[in-house]
Amino acid sequence: MGAFAVTVRQVLENSCFSKASVVAGFEGLERVIRWVHVMEVPEVRALLNGNELILSTGVGWGQQIKPTSYLRELIEAGAAGLCVELVKYKNEIPQDMIELANEHHFPIIVFREEVRFIDITQSINTHLMNNQYKLLSDLESFSRKLNQTLLLPNAFKRVLNLLYEHLNVQVLYQSKNGDEVLFAPVQNKKEQERYFHLVEGYKKDRIYNQNKQFQTPSADYAGQSIQTLGHNFAELIIFPQDKMVSDYDLVVLDRCATAISQDLLRIFYVEEQNKYKERQWIQEWLNGELSQGQLEKTLQSIFPAVNPYGAFVCVCEIDEKIDESTYSYYKSIFRNIFQNYGLYLYTVEDHQELNFVLLNLRGDDWKLRMKKALQLIEKTDLFTQASNNTPHFGVGKYTTSIHQISDSYKTAKESLKIQKKVGLSNEIFYENLHIYRLISSLDKQGHLDEYMTEYIGSVIEHDKKHNSELLKTLSVFLESNGSKKDAAKELYIVRQTLYHRLDKLKELLGDDFMESFKRPAIEFALYAYRYLMSCEKETSLLRAIR
């Protein structure tokens, strides 16, 4: 394919230039011409757009126009070259002009016979317009092929091959993070390394234009960013074989980049729809809204080989707010680790929570494997390199019926809630929380505070009024199974002081507070106090924040 323009070398082949000769700037004959224009005024810089071939008779040179200054303005304005008629007003090109032109590789062409500038402008400009019309027709034809390609399967890769075949260039697609690299045509490893080397060298000096296109200063290759949803996903790069990058190449490259962006957007949309459907049915599964038949059918369609021994839910709460792309990274890491421990994973995110449905594919101790998996997760760079991004895990009831997973989901959230309230971060399993499960249940019914006050309210009031430590003494004494020696040692007090405190406790709780029928109730009330105090601190903190 050609370009929207022609070069100085190509123009010299036109019949109008049959008697012309190049006197300077021989190394600039590949300069691109987009228009031919007559210019006989002193100050030309503001009147040009660039890439014009300038025609001049030399009129006024040495009088109103200083030839070297005139030439310098043409060079700075980006003109393609200068044609001078050395007949009526000028006989020779000044030597300083020739030196300046050679220095900047700026062609100077001379006519030593009178020529009709009207014939030159008409011939070359008509050629340029005809060439542009032809290229636009070719571009329209290419666009139709491109649109048809986008309707086919694997459109993305087909576009790369279409770009290669249409421009006869080497095509390289490289994702932003480098995890996906495609060549069209396919190259061997040695050639791939050569192209990578070119791209890496280029990145250090890349030049962006207004359309985010880039190309090397020598125009040996060019690239276009693949952008979708406001993000730069990849670079599409072409390496012309034995030619310079043309305007036409850049337009075709831009259209292919846009087509790939559209295909990526379609893929993202389909993936998002699939993710939404997956999140929806997993959430319905967790909420117990799917029938046994619906659930089994869905699971079999996704992973037919799964025949679990049982299942459970793990809720992971993350302190730091993270975006969706980071969630995807988290889920992929978790999935690999859990699967290594025989736990197949389904995931759905909810705000700053990740809800895992884990299918147990082995028959041995699932709790031990779960602990090892979570310990490994906590050692990954997801959390070790982010001090403010601590994960909190809650594991629900184990069930042999995947249809009853909603009970495991509820108890997993309850486990996380209890851990946070009473500071039991090392006990993640709901089944191991024992007495706190009963406390939480009683709290939901609204009777916990009343129960606690009935059994240890008098001790709490005494401590507040007298700034004493009777409640702590009671707790340590019970944990020491009534051993006065052990309790005194734990409290760092002498026995006489302990005896005095125990007498006061008997006065407040009754002489029978250590009897088997009453002691468990008081111990339960102490656990309830710890639970309720955590709730009170949490409420106070929320009030302070508000």
TrEMBL record:
Residues 470-527 form the PucR C-terminal helix-turn-helix domain. Pfam families: HTH_30, PucR. Gene3D superfamilies: PucR C-terminal helix-turn-helix domain. Residues 10-127 form the Purine catabolism PurC-like domain. It comes from the Bacteria. InterPro entries: CdaR-like_regulators (IPR051448), PucR_C-HTH_dom (IPR025736), PucR_C-HTH_sf (IPR042070), PucR_dom (IPR012914). Transmembrane segments: none annotated. This is PucR family transcriptional regulator. It comes from Bacillus yapensis.
